[in-house]
Amino acid sequence: MTERRSFAEILDGCIDRVLARGESIEDCVRDFPEHAAELRDALSAGVAAAEAFAFLPDQDRKRAARLRLHDAIDRKRSRRAWWRLPFAGAGRAPRLATVALVVLLVVAGSSTGTVLAAQDSAPGELLYPVMRAGERAQLALAVTDERKSRLHARFMERRMSELEAVTSTGRGRFVPDLVEQIERHRARAQGLAVARVRSIVETLPALDDSAPAAGPDHEPPSMTPGSPSRREVSMRRIVLLSTQIEAFRERIARFESMVGEGPSRRELQRLREAMERSHQGLEELLSRTDVAHQVRGTDAGPEGGTTDAQGGAPTDVGMVHVAARIDGIKVIHDGRNLLGVDVSVVAVEDGTRHVAHLTRRGTKLIVDGRPGSIKQLRLDQAAVLIVDPSTGEILELQIGHAPPDAERVRE
Amino acid sequence: MRPTGSDRARPDAQILTDLYEELYDRVARYVTARTGSRDLGEDLAAEVFVRAVESIGSFRDRGAPIEAWLFRIAHNLVVDHYRRSTRRPAVVLDDAMQIAGSADTAAEVEQRLAMERVRQMMEHLNQAQQEVISLRFSGQLSAEETGAVMGRTPGAVRELQRTALKALRALMVPGAAHPEAPPHPEDHGPSQEAGGR
Fold it and tell me: Is B166 close to A42, i.e. CB distance below 8 A?
Protein backbone atom coordinates (compact mmCIF):
# COMPACT_ATOMS: atom_id res chain seq x y z
CA MET A 1 0.00 0.00 0.00
CA THR A 2 2.81 2.35 0.92
CA GLU A 3 4.49 1.52 -2.34
CA ARG A 4 1.32 2.41 -4.22
CA ARG A 5 1.11 5.66 -2.37
CA SER A 6 4.64 6.58 -3.24
CA PHE A 7 3.98 5.83 -6.88
CA ALA A 8 0.93 8.08 -6.70
CA GLU A 9 3.18 10.87 -5.47
CA ILE A 10 5.79 10.26 -8.12
CA LEU A 11 3.09 10.30 -10.76
CA ASP A 12 1.67 13.52 -9.38
CA GLY A 13 5.08 15.19 -9.49
CA CYS A 14 5.54 14.03 -13.08
CA ILE A 15 2.13 15.39 -14.07
CA ASP A 16 3.20 18.79 -12.78
CA ARG A 17 6.47 18.56 -14.67
CA VAL A 18 4.78 17.64 -17.93
CA LEU A 19 1.78 19.97 -17.69
CA ALA A 20 3.20 23.01 -15.99
CA ARG A 21 6.85 22.94 -16.97
CA GLY A 22 6.53 21.49 -20.44
CA GLU A 23 8.90 18.60 -19.82
CA SER A 24 8.44 15.45 -21.87
CA ILE A 25 7.06 12.20 -20.53
CA GLU A 26 10.39 10.54 -21.19
CA ASP A 27 12.24 13.10 -19.08
CA CYS A 28 10.15 11.99 -16.16
CA VAL A 29 10.32 8.31 -16.93
CA ARG A 30 14.10 8.49 -17.03
CA ASP A 31 14.16 9.74 -13.46
CA PHE A 32 12.11 6.81 -12.17
CA PRO A 33 13.24 3.74 -14.11
CA GLU A 34 11.70 1.40 -11.54
CA HIS A 35 8.25 2.75 -12.46
CA ALA A 36 9.00 3.38 -16.14
CA ALA A 37 6.21 1.38 -17.76
CA GLU A 38 3.49 2.37 -15.32
CA LEU A 39 4.52 6.03 -15.39
CA ARG A 40 4.63 6.15 -19.17
CA ASP A 41 1.19 4.60 -19.45
CA ALA A 42 -0.41 6.88 -16.88
CA LEU A 43 1.20 10.05 -18.21
CA SER A 44 0.34 9.20 -21.81
CA ALA A 45 -3.29 8.75 -20.86
CA GLY A 46 -3.30 12.03 -18.93
CA VAL A 47 -1.63 14.01 -21.68
CA ALA A 48 -4.01 12.54 -24.27
CA ALA A 49 -6.92 13.67 -22.09
CA ALA A 50 -5.38 17.12 -21.65
CA GLU A 51 -4.80 17.52 -25.38
CA ALA A 52 -8.26 16.32 -26.33
CA PHE A 53 -9.81 19.25 -24.49
CA ALA A 54 -7.06 21.79 -25.13
CA PHE A 55 -9.10 23.77 -27.63
CA LEU A 56 -8.83 27.51 -28.01
CA PRO A 57 -12.17 28.96 -26.93
CA ASP A 58 -14.16 30.83 -29.51
CA GLN A 59 -13.01 34.43 -29.34
CA ASP A 60 -16.45 35.95 -29.93
CA ARG A 61 -17.96 33.94 -27.13
CA LYS A 62 -15.06 34.80 -24.92
CA ARG A 63 -15.63 38.50 -25.55
CA ALA A 64 -19.32 38.06 -24.88
CA ALA A 65 -18.41 36.38 -21.59
CA ARG A 66 -16.22 39.36 -20.72
CA LEU A 67 -19.09 41.75 -21.43
CA ARG A 68 -21.37 39.67 -19.22
CA LEU A 69 -18.82 39.76 -16.44
CA HIS A 70 -18.46 43.54 -16.65
CA ASP A 71 -22.20 43.91 -16.72
CA ALA A 72 -22.57 41.73 -13.63
CA ILE A 73 -19.91 43.77 -11.85
CA ASP A 74 -21.71 46.99 -12.78
CA ARG A 75 -25.04 45.65 -11.59
CA LYS A 76 -23.54 44.60 -8.29
CA ARG A 77 -21.89 47.98 -7.87
CA SER A 78 -25.16 49.75 -8.46
CA ARG A 79 -26.94 47.62 -5.90
CA ARG A 80 -24.21 48.20 -3.40
CA ALA A 81 -24.23 51.91 -4.05
CA TRP A 82 -27.84 51.98 -2.96
CA TRP A 83 -27.05 50.71 0.52
CA ARG A 84 -24.00 52.85 0.83
CA LEU A 85 -25.88 56.09 0.49
CA PRO A 86 -24.94 58.20 3.46
CA PHE A 87 -28.49 58.76 4.63
CA ALA A 88 -29.31 55.07 4.42
CA GLY A 89 -26.76 54.42 7.11
CA ALA A 90 -29.11 54.07 10.06
CA GLY A 91 -30.02 50.49 9.30
CA ARG A 92 -33.15 50.51 7.18
CA ALA A 93 -33.70 54.10 6.16
CA PRO A 94 -36.99 54.66 4.38
CA ARG A 95 -36.58 53.85 0.73
CA LEU A 96 -38.99 56.54 -0.40
CA ALA A 97 -36.98 59.24 1.33
CA THR A 98 -33.91 57.97 -0.46
CA VAL A 99 -35.65 58.09 -3.81
CA ALA A 100 -36.78 61.64 -3.17
CA LEU A 101 -33.32 62.73 -2.23
CA VAL A 102 -31.77 61.04 -5.24
CA VAL A 103 -34.12 62.92 -7.51
CA LEU A 104 -33.35 66.11 -5.69
CA LEU A 105 -29.62 65.60 -5.94
CA VAL A 106 -29.80 64.88 -9.64
CA VAL A 107 -31.98 67.85 -10.34
CA ALA A 108 -29.35 69.86 -8.57
CA GLY A 109 -26.74 68.30 -10.85
CA SER A 110 -25.10 66.28 -8.14
CA SER A 111 -22.61 63.40 -8.06
CA THR A 112 -22.77 60.31 -10.24
CA GLY A 113 -22.36 58.00 -7.25
CA THR A 114 -25.84 58.79 -6.07
CA VAL A 115 -27.28 58.29 -9.49
CA LEU A 116 -26.07 54.69 -9.48
CA ALA A 117 -29.03 53.95 -7.26
CA ALA A 118 -31.29 54.42 -10.27
CA GLN A 119 -29.31 52.14 -12.51
CA ASP A 120 -31.72 49.26 -12.79
CA SER A 121 -34.69 51.37 -13.81
CA ALA A 122 -36.59 50.74 -17.01
CA PRO A 123 -38.10 53.20 -19.50
CA GLY A 124 -41.21 54.76 -18.05
CA GLU A 125 -40.14 54.26 -14.45
CA LEU A 126 -39.63 57.07 -12.00
CA LEU A 127 -35.88 56.84 -11.79
CA TYR A 128 -35.21 56.16 -15.45
CA PRO A 129 -34.40 59.79 -16.33
CA VAL A 130 -32.13 59.84 -13.29
CA MET A 131 -30.17 56.94 -14.66
CA ARG A 132 -29.80 58.60 -18.05
CA ALA A 133 -28.61 61.79 -16.39
CA GLY A 134 -26.10 59.72 -14.44
CA GLU A 135 -24.79 58.23 -17.67
CA ARG A 136 -24.26 61.68 -19.14
CA ALA A 137 -22.34 62.67 -16.04
CA GLN A 138 -20.15 59.55 -16.30
CA LEU A 139 -19.38 60.41 -19.89
CA ALA A 140 -18.49 63.97 -18.98
CA LEU A 141 -16.11 62.71 -16.31
CA ALA A 142 -14.38 60.13 -18.52
CA VAL A 143 -10.92 61.40 -19.33
CA THR A 144 -9.61 59.24 -22.15
CA ASP A 145 -11.18 58.46 -25.50
CA GLU A 146 -10.76 54.78 -24.72
CA ARG A 147 -12.79 55.12 -21.54
CA LYS A 148 -15.44 57.22 -23.28
CA SER A 149 -15.75 54.69 -26.05
CA ARG A 150 -16.20 51.88 -23.54
CA LEU A 151 -18.86 53.82 -21.70
CA HIS A 152 -20.79 54.53 -24.89
CA ALA A 153 -20.59 50.82 -25.75
CA ARG A 154 -21.86 49.90 -22.30
CA PHE A 155 -24.76 52.34 -22.50
CA MET A 156 -25.57 51.06 -25.96
CA GLU A 157 -25.76 47.55 -24.46
CA ARG A 158 -28.08 48.86 -21.74
CA ARG A 159 -30.39 50.54 -24.28
CA MET A 160 -30.45 47.27 -26.24
CA SER A 161 -31.66 45.38 -23.20
CA GLU A 162 -34.31 48.02 -22.66
CA LEU A 163 -35.30 47.79 -26.31
CA GLU A 164 -35.66 44.05 -25.93
CA ALA A 165 -37.84 44.54 -22.85
CA VAL A 166 -40.14 47.09 -24.49
CA THR A 167 -40.52 45.21 -27.77
CA SER A 168 -41.28 41.93 -26.02
CA THR A 169 -43.93 43.60 -23.86
CA GLY A 170 -45.51 45.66 -26.62
CA ARG A 171 -44.53 49.09 -25.29
CA GLY A 172 -43.85 50.54 -28.70
CA ARG A 173 -43.93 54.16 -27.60
CA PHE A 174 -40.43 53.83 -26.14
CA VAL A 175 -38.92 52.40 -29.31
CA PRO A 176 -38.06 55.62 -31.22
CA ASP A 177 -36.19 57.14 -28.29
CA LEU A 178 -34.26 53.95 -27.60
CA VAL A 179 -33.38 53.49 -31.25
CA GLU A 180 -32.07 57.03 -31.38
CA GLN A 181 -30.04 56.53 -28.22
CA ILE A 182 -28.54 53.25 -29.42
CA GLU A 183 -27.55 54.83 -32.70
CA ARG A 184 -26.04 57.83 -30.94
CA HIS A 185 -24.00 55.69 -28.53
CA ARG A 186 -22.94 53.44 -31.39
CA ALA A 187 -21.70 56.37 -33.44
CA ARG A 188 -19.76 57.85 -30.52
CA ALA A 189 -18.27 54.53 -29.39
CA GLN A 190 -17.17 53.80 -32.92
CA GLY A 191 -15.90 57.29 -33.68
CA LEU A 192 -13.73 57.38 -30.59
CA ALA A 193 -12.37 53.87 -31.01
CA VAL A 194 -11.65 54.25 -34.69
CA ALA A 195 -10.00 57.67 -34.64
CA ARG A 196 -6.65 56.42 -33.44
CA VAL A 197 -6.44 53.31 -35.57
CA ARG A 198 -7.60 55.15 -38.65
CA SER A 199 -4.75 57.60 -38.29
CA ILE A 200 -2.32 54.68 -38.18
CA VAL A 201 -3.79 53.06 -41.24
CA GLU A 202 -4.17 56.17 -43.33
CA THR A 203 -0.62 57.30 -42.85
CA LEU A 204 0.75 54.06 -44.23
CA PRO A 205 2.06 54.92 -47.67
CA ALA A 206 2.00 51.48 -49.22
CA LEU A 207 -1.42 50.30 -48.34
CA ASP A 208 -3.56 51.18 -51.28
CA ASP A 209 -0.96 51.02 -54.00
CA SER A 210 2.18 49.03 -54.36
CA ALA A 211 4.52 52.01 -54.00
CA PRO A 212 7.55 51.06 -51.97
CA ALA A 213 8.33 52.79 -48.71
CA ALA A 214 10.04 56.15 -49.04
CA GLY A 215 13.59 55.03 -48.51
CA PRO A 216 15.83 52.57 -46.78
CA ASP A 217 15.47 54.32 -43.43
CA HIS A 218 11.78 54.76 -43.72
CA GLU A 219 9.61 52.69 -41.43
CA PRO A 220 5.87 52.49 -41.69
CA PRO A 221 4.19 54.61 -39.03
CA SER A 222 2.80 51.50 -37.37
CA MET A 223 6.30 51.01 -36.04
CA THR A 224 6.40 54.33 -34.24
CA PRO A 225 8.09 53.92 -30.87
CA GLY A 226 5.86 53.10 -27.97
CA SER A 227 2.80 52.67 -30.12
CA PRO A 228 2.29 48.89 -30.12
CA SER A 229 0.67 48.53 -26.71
CA ARG A 230 -1.67 51.48 -27.20
CA ARG A 231 -2.35 50.37 -30.72
CA GLU A 232 -3.15 46.90 -29.43
CA VAL A 233 -5.56 48.48 -26.98
CA SER A 234 -7.25 50.40 -29.78
CA MET A 235 -7.38 47.34 -31.98
CA ARG A 236 -8.89 45.22 -29.24
CA ARG A 237 -11.46 47.92 -28.63
CA ILE A 238 -12.48 47.85 -32.29
CA VAL A 239 -12.60 44.08 -32.48
CA LEU A 240 -14.78 44.07 -29.39
CA LEU A 241 -17.03 46.78 -30.73
CA SER A 242 -17.39 45.10 -34.09
CA THR A 243 -18.38 41.84 -32.40
CA GLN A 244 -20.83 43.66 -30.17
CA ILE A 245 -22.43 45.48 -33.09
CA GLU A 246 -22.73 42.28 -35.10
CA ALA A 247 -24.44 40.62 -32.15
CA PHE A 248 -26.76 43.62 -31.86
CA ARG A 249 -27.70 43.33 -35.49
CA GLU A 250 -28.86 39.77 -34.89
CA ARG A 251 -30.73 40.75 -31.74
CA ILE A 252 -32.51 43.59 -33.52
CA ALA A 253 -33.58 41.22 -36.27
CA ARG A 254 -35.14 39.10 -33.53
CA PHE A 255 -36.91 42.14 -32.05
CA GLU A 256 -38.28 42.93 -35.49
CA SER A 257 -39.96 39.57 -35.61
CA MET A 258 -41.58 40.29 -32.25
CA VAL A 259 -43.37 43.45 -33.33
CA GLY A 260 -46.05 43.70 -35.97
CA GLU A 261 -45.98 45.93 -39.04
CA GLY A 262 -45.87 49.58 -38.07
CA PRO A 263 -43.63 52.45 -37.08
CA SER A 264 -41.76 50.43 -34.43
CA ARG A 265 -40.80 47.82 -36.93
CA ARG A 266 -39.57 50.44 -39.37
CA GLU A 267 -37.47 52.03 -36.64
CA LEU A 268 -35.95 48.67 -35.79
CA GLN A 269 -35.25 47.95 -39.41
CA ARG A 270 -33.51 51.30 -39.78
CA LEU A 271 -31.40 50.56 -36.73
CA ARG A 272 -30.48 47.11 -37.97
CA GLU A 273 -29.34 48.54 -41.28
CA ALA A 274 -27.24 51.14 -39.48
CA MET A 275 -25.64 48.36 -37.41
CA GLU A 276 -24.94 46.40 -40.55
CA ARG A 277 -23.17 49.35 -42.18
CA SER A 278 -21.25 50.03 -39.02
CA HIS A 279 -20.13 46.42 -38.71
CA GLN A 280 -18.98 46.37 -42.32
CA GLY A 281 -17.06 49.58 -41.82
CA LEU A 282 -15.27 48.24 -38.77
CA GLU A 283 -14.44 44.95 -40.41
CA GLU A 284 -13.08 46.76 -43.42
CA LEU A 285 -10.92 48.90 -41.18
CA LEU A 286 -9.70 45.81 -39.33
CA SER A 287 -8.77 44.06 -42.53
CA ARG A 288 -6.88 47.13 -43.74
CA THR A 289 -5.08 47.30 -40.43
CA ASP A 290 -4.21 43.63 -40.67
CA VAL A 291 -2.60 44.33 -44.01
CA ALA A 292 -0.82 47.31 -42.48
CA HIS A 293 0.71 45.07 -39.88
CA GLN A 294 1.75 42.49 -42.38
CA VAL A 295 3.54 45.11 -44.41
CA ARG A 296 5.56 45.88 -41.33
CA GLY A 297 9.16 44.83 -41.57
CA THR A 298 8.98 43.75 -45.19
CA ASP A 299 9.48 45.77 -48.33
CA ALA A 300 5.90 46.97 -48.25
CA GLY A 301 5.09 44.90 -51.27
CA PRO A 302 1.78 44.76 -53.09
CA GLU A 303 -1.22 43.68 -51.10
CA GLY A 304 -1.63 40.41 -52.94
CA GLY A 305 1.71 39.21 -51.67
CA THR A 306 1.15 40.14 -48.07
CA THR A 307 -2.38 38.97 -47.47
CA ASP A 308 -1.19 35.51 -48.30
CA ALA A 309 0.61 35.46 -44.99
CA GLN A 310 -2.66 35.52 -43.12
CA GLY A 311 -3.55 31.88 -43.09
CA GLY A 312 -3.38 30.10 -46.41
CA ALA A 313 -0.62 28.07 -47.92
CA PRO A 314 2.94 29.02 -47.03
CA THR A 315 4.49 31.48 -49.42
CA ASP A 316 7.83 29.78 -49.57
CA VAL A 317 8.89 30.54 -53.10
CA GLY A 318 12.48 31.70 -52.78
CA MET A 319 12.31 31.33 -49.01
CA VAL A 320 15.03 29.66 -46.96
CA HIS A 321 14.16 26.51 -45.01
CA VAL A 322 16.14 26.03 -41.81
CA ALA A 323 15.98 22.73 -39.94
CA ALA A 324 15.97 23.38 -36.21
CA ARG A 325 14.72 22.18 -32.88
CA ILE A 326 12.70 24.06 -30.30
CA ASP A 327 14.72 24.83 -27.23
CA GLY A 328 12.71 27.41 -25.34
CA ILE A 329 9.13 28.66 -25.15
CA LYS A 330 8.35 31.94 -23.50
CA VAL A 331 4.88 33.34 -23.01
CA ILE A 332 4.64 37.08 -23.51
CA HIS A 333 1.95 38.93 -21.63
CA ASP A 334 1.34 42.39 -20.28
CA GLY A 335 0.19 41.20 -16.91
CA ARG A 336 -3.38 40.67 -18.04
CA ASN A 337 -3.44 39.67 -21.67
CA LEU A 338 -1.58 37.02 -23.56
CA LEU A 339 0.28 38.87 -26.29
CA GLY A 340 2.04 35.96 -27.90
CA VAL A 341 4.71 33.34 -27.51
CA ASP A 342 8.38 33.63 -28.29
CA VAL A 343 9.80 30.33 -29.46
CA SER A 344 13.53 29.96 -29.32
CA VAL A 345 14.97 27.49 -31.81
CA VAL A 346 18.46 26.20 -32.56
CA ALA A 347 19.39 25.55 -36.17
CA VAL A 348 20.52 21.96 -36.76
CA GLU A 349 23.21 22.86 -39.23
CA ASP A 350 25.20 25.54 -37.44
CA GLY A 351 23.73 25.73 -33.94
CA THR A 352 22.65 29.35 -34.35
CA ARG A 353 19.73 30.46 -32.27
CA HIS A 354 16.65 32.21 -33.65
CA VAL A 355 13.54 33.49 -31.98
CA ALA A 356 10.17 33.19 -33.71
CA HIS A 357 7.50 35.54 -32.43
CA LEU A 358 4.15 33.78 -32.52
CA THR A 359 1.80 36.67 -32.19
CA ARG A 360 -1.42 37.49 -33.97
CA ARG A 361 0.53 39.06 -36.75
CA GLY A 362 3.97 37.59 -36.24
CA THR A 363 5.38 34.27 -37.34
CA LYS A 364 2.82 31.71 -38.46
CA LEU A 365 2.76 28.35 -36.72
CA ILE A 366 2.11 25.41 -39.00
CA VAL A 367 1.62 21.94 -37.57
CA ASP A 368 1.36 19.03 -39.96
CA GLY A 369 0.74 21.44 -42.80
CA ARG A 370 -2.08 23.31 -41.09
CA PRO A 371 -2.28 26.39 -38.89
CA GLY A 372 -1.41 25.16 -35.41
CA SER A 373 -1.86 26.25 -31.84
CA ILE A 374 0.78 27.09 -29.26
CA LYS A 375 -0.56 24.20 -27.23
CA GLN A 376 1.08 21.90 -29.70
CA LEU A 377 4.54 23.21 -28.97
CA ARG A 378 6.93 21.20 -26.85
CA LEU A 379 10.58 21.48 -26.05
CA ASP A 380 12.91 19.46 -28.23
CA GLN A 381 10.44 19.24 -31.08
CA ALA A 382 11.96 19.21 -34.52
CA ALA A 383 11.01 22.33 -36.45
CA VAL A 384 11.55 23.99 -39.78
CA LEU A 385 11.82 27.74 -40.10
CA ILE A 386 10.75 29.46 -43.29
CA VAL A 387 12.87 32.58 -43.52
CA ASP A 388 12.58 35.48 -45.92
CA PRO A 389 16.17 35.81 -47.22
CA SER A 390 15.84 39.50 -48.01
CA THR A 391 14.81 40.57 -44.52
CA GLY A 392 15.83 37.64 -42.32
CA GLU A 393 12.29 37.61 -41.00
CA ILE A 394 10.92 34.26 -39.84
CA LEU A 395 7.64 33.86 -41.67
CA GLU A 396 6.68 30.42 -40.49
CA LEU A 397 7.55 27.91 -37.84
CA GLN A 398 6.63 24.44 -39.04
CA ILE A 399 6.49 21.44 -36.77
CA GLY A 400 5.12 17.96 -37.17
CA HIS A 401 7.38 16.62 -39.86
CA ALA A 402 10.93 16.06 -38.76
CA PRO A 403 13.80 17.08 -41.03
CA PRO A 404 15.96 14.08 -41.89
CA ASP A 405 18.78 14.92 -39.54
CA ALA A 406 16.85 16.52 -36.71
CA GLU A 407 17.32 13.52 -34.44
CA ARG A 408 21.03 13.84 -33.97
CA VAL A 409 20.91 17.22 -32.27
CA ARG A 410 18.88 15.86 -29.44
CA GLU A 411 21.85 14.83 -27.31
CA MET B 1 0.26 37.97 -12.09
CA ARG B 2 -1.66 34.88 -11.10
CA PRO B 3 -4.31 35.90 -8.59
CA THR B 4 -3.64 34.43 -5.19
CA GLY B 5 -5.03 34.58 -1.74
CA SER B 6 -2.77 37.52 -0.98
CA ASP B 7 -4.75 39.56 -3.50
CA ARG B 8 -7.66 39.71 -1.16
CA ALA B 9 -6.92 43.33 -0.40
CA ARG B 10 -7.63 44.26 -4.03
CA PRO B 11 -11.05 45.47 -5.16
CA ASP B 12 -13.49 42.74 -6.18
CA ALA B 13 -13.81 44.01 -9.74
CA GLN B 14 -10.05 43.86 -10.24
CA ILE B 15 -9.78 40.33 -8.85
CA LEU B 16 -12.66 39.16 -11.02
CA THR B 17 -11.41 40.65 -14.25
CA ASP B 18 -7.93 39.28 -13.60
CA LEU B 19 -9.43 35.89 -12.89
CA TYR B 20 -11.38 36.06 -16.11
CA GLU B 21 -8.25 36.86 -18.13
CA GLU B 22 -6.28 34.14 -16.43
CA LEU B 23 -8.75 31.34 -16.07
CA TYR B 24 -11.54 31.63 -18.63
CA ASP B 25 -9.90 29.22 -21.08
CA ARG B 26 -9.13 26.69 -18.38
CA VAL B 27 -12.62 26.85 -16.94
CA ALA B 28 -14.13 26.41 -20.41
CA ARG B 29 -11.93 23.36 -21.01
CA TYR B 30 -12.73 21.87 -17.63
CA VAL B 31 -16.48 22.22 -18.14
CA THR B 32 -16.14 20.84 -21.66
CA ALA B 33 -14.25 17.84 -20.31
CA ARG B 34 -16.99 17.26 -17.77
CA THR B 35 -19.92 17.68 -20.11
CA GLY B 36 -18.49 16.55 -23.42
CA SER B 37 -19.87 19.61 -25.14
CA ARG B 38 -17.71 22.51 -26.14
CA ASP B 39 -20.72 24.77 -26.64
CA LEU B 40 -21.94 24.01 -23.18
CA GLY B 41 -18.43 24.36 -21.81
CA GLU B 42 -18.11 27.89 -23.15
CA ASP B 43 -21.65 28.84 -22.08
CA LEU B 44 -21.18 27.62 -18.56
CA ALA B 45 -17.71 29.19 -18.34
CA ALA B 46 -19.32 32.60 -18.91
CA GLU B 47 -21.87 31.77 -16.24
CA VAL B 48 -19.12 30.79 -13.80
CA PHE B 49 -17.73 34.31 -13.81
CA VAL B 50 -21.14 35.91 -13.42
CA ARG B 51 -21.75 33.68 -10.38
CA ALA B 52 -18.32 34.56 -9.09
CA VAL B 53 -19.37 38.22 -9.01
CA GLU B 54 -22.24 37.29 -6.73
CA SER B 55 -20.28 35.04 -4.42
CA ILE B 56 -16.92 36.72 -4.18
CA GLY B 57 -17.87 37.62 -0.62
CA SER B 58 -17.70 33.94 0.30
CA PHE B 59 -14.22 33.70 -1.13
CA ARG B 60 -13.16 36.64 1.02
CA ASP B 61 -14.84 35.21 4.13
CA ARG B 62 -13.51 31.70 3.87
CA GLY B 63 -10.08 32.43 2.47
CA ALA B 64 -10.09 29.45 0.12
CA PRO B 65 -7.44 29.40 -2.64
CA ILE B 66 -8.92 31.55 -5.38
CA GLU B 67 -8.56 29.05 -8.23
CA ALA B 68 -10.13 26.30 -6.17
CA TRP B 69 -12.96 28.65 -5.26
CA LEU B 70 -13.64 29.49 -8.90
CA PHE B 71 -13.49 25.88 -10.05
CA ARG B 72 -15.81 24.94 -7.23
CA ILE B 73 -18.36 27.31 -8.75
CA ALA B 74 -17.76 25.64 -12.11
CA HIS B 75 -18.10 22.19 -10.53
CA ASN B 76 -21.42 23.17 -8.96
CA LEU B 77 -22.69 24.51 -12.26
CA VAL B 78 -21.85 21.23 -13.93
CA VAL B 79 -23.66 19.34 -11.18
CA ASP B 80 -26.67 21.67 -11.53
CA HIS B 81 -26.62 21.13 -15.24
CA TYR B 82 -26.76 17.37 -14.85
CA ARG B 83 -29.53 17.63 -12.30
CA ARG B 84 -31.59 19.68 -14.73
CA SER B 85 -30.82 17.61 -17.76
CA THR B 86 -31.83 13.99 -17.88
CA ARG B 87 -30.95 13.70 -21.55
CA ARG B 88 -27.24 13.75 -21.13
CA PRO B 89 -26.20 12.08 -24.38
CA ALA B 90 -28.20 14.59 -26.42
CA VAL B 91 -25.61 17.25 -25.76
CA VAL B 92 -22.88 15.14 -27.23
CA LEU B 93 -25.06 14.40 -30.20
CA ASP B 94 -25.56 18.14 -30.84
CA ASP B 95 -21.83 18.60 -31.02
CA ALA B 96 -21.45 15.63 -33.28
CA MET B 97 -23.95 17.16 -35.68
CA GLN B 98 -22.01 20.38 -35.62
CA ILE B 99 -18.92 18.48 -36.62
CA ALA B 100 -20.72 17.07 -39.62
CA GLY B 101 -22.26 20.32 -40.76
CA SER B 102 -19.91 23.14 -39.89
CA ALA B 103 -17.35 24.88 -42.01
CA ASP B 104 -14.61 24.32 -39.43
CA THR B 105 -11.12 23.72 -40.59
CA ALA B 106 -9.96 20.14 -40.78
CA ALA B 107 -7.83 20.72 -37.71
CA GLU B 108 -10.81 21.83 -35.69
CA VAL B 109 -12.80 18.83 -36.81
CA GLU B 110 -9.97 16.55 -35.76
CA GLN B 111 -9.79 18.28 -32.42
CA ARG B 112 -13.51 17.80 -31.90
CA LEU B 113 -13.29 14.17 -32.85
CA ALA B 114 -10.39 13.58 -30.48
CA MET B 115 -12.40 15.32 -27.79
CA GLU B 116 -15.38 13.15 -28.50
CA ARG B 117 -13.32 9.99 -28.37
CA VAL B 118 -11.67 10.79 -25.07
CA ARG B 119 -14.98 11.92 -23.65
CA GLN B 120 -16.55 8.59 -24.57
CA MET B 121 -13.76 6.79 -22.78
CA MET B 122 -14.13 9.00 -19.74
CA GLU B 123 -17.80 8.06 -19.53
CA HIS B 124 -16.59 4.62 -18.44
CA LEU B 125 -14.84 6.07 -15.40
CA ASN B 126 -16.69 6.86 -12.21
CA GLN B 127 -17.68 10.46 -11.45
CA ALA B 128 -14.79 11.09 -9.06
CA GLN B 129 -12.28 9.77 -11.57
CA GLN B 130 -13.74 11.93 -14.32
CA GLU B 131 -13.65 14.92 -12.04
CA VAL B 132 -10.04 14.46 -11.00
CA ILE B 133 -8.87 14.09 -14.60
CA SER B 134 -10.89 17.09 -15.74
CA LEU B 135 -9.71 19.35 -12.93
CA ARG B 136 -6.13 18.24 -13.09
CA PHE B 137 -5.57 18.05 -16.85
CA SER B 138 -8.10 20.43 -18.38
CA GLY B 139 -8.44 22.84 -15.45
CA GLN B 140 -4.70 22.54 -14.82
CA LEU B 141 -5.17 22.67 -11.07
CA SER B 142 -2.57 21.25 -8.69
CA ALA B 143 -3.37 18.23 -6.56
CA GLU B 144 -3.88 20.56 -3.60
CA GLU B 145 -6.30 22.81 -5.52
CA THR B 146 -8.10 19.80 -6.94
CA GLY B 147 -8.49 18.53 -3.40
CA ALA B 148 -9.94 21.86 -2.31
CA VAL B 149 -12.55 21.67 -5.08
CA MET B 150 -13.44 18.05 -4.43
CA GLY B 151 -13.29 18.19 -0.66
CA ARG B 152 -10.53 15.61 -0.45
CA THR B 153 -7.00 15.64 0.86
CA PRO B 154 -4.18 16.07 -1.68
CA GLY B 155 -3.09 12.52 -0.88
CA ALA B 156 -6.52 11.17 -1.72
CA VAL B 157 -6.48 13.16 -4.96
CA ARG B 158 -3.13 11.66 -5.94
CA GLU B 159 -4.37 8.15 -5.31
CA LEU B 160 -7.59 8.86 -7.18
CA GLN B 161 -5.76 10.26 -10.17
CA ARG B 162 -3.50 7.21 -10.24
CA THR B 163 -6.45 4.83 -10.47
CA ALA B 164 -8.26 7.14 -12.90
CA LEU B 165 -5.31 7.32 -15.28
CA LYS B 166 -4.78 3.59 -15.06
CA ALA B 167 -8.40 3.00 -15.98
CA LEU B 168 -8.26 5.56 -18.78
CA ARG B 169 -5.11 4.04 -20.15
CA ALA B 170 -6.72 0.62 -20.17
CA LEU B 171 -9.49 2.08 -22.31
CA MET B 172 -7.05 3.72 -24.70
CA VAL B 173 -4.83 0.69 -25.23
CA PRO B 174 -3.71 -0.52 -27.64
CA GLY B 175 -4.06 2.21 -30.27
CA ALA B 176 -3.90 5.48 -28.38
CA ALA B 177 -0.17 5.99 -28.01
CA HIS B 178 0.68 9.56 -27.25
CA PRO B 179 2.83 11.57 -29.67
CA GLU B 180 5.63 11.77 -27.16
CA ALA B 181 5.54 8.14 -26.20
CA PRO B 182 8.45 6.32 -27.79
CA PRO B 183 9.33 4.88 -30.12
CA HIS B 184 7.15 6.72 -32.68
CA PRO B 185 7.23 10.44 -31.96
CA GLU B 186 5.33 11.30 -35.10
CA ASP B 187 2.46 8.94 -34.41
CA HIS B 188 -0.32 11.29 -33.40
CA GLY B 189 -2.87 11.39 -36.17
CA PRO B 190 -6.15 11.16 -34.27
CA SER B 191 -8.00 9.71 -37.24
CA GLN B 192 -6.03 6.50 -37.19
CA GLU B 193 -6.79 5.72 -33.58
CA ALA B 194 -9.57 3.35 -32.77
CA GLY B 195 -10.27 4.72 -29.34
CA GLY B 196 -11.50 2.61 -26.48
CA ARG B 197 -14.93 1.61 -27.64
Answer: yes
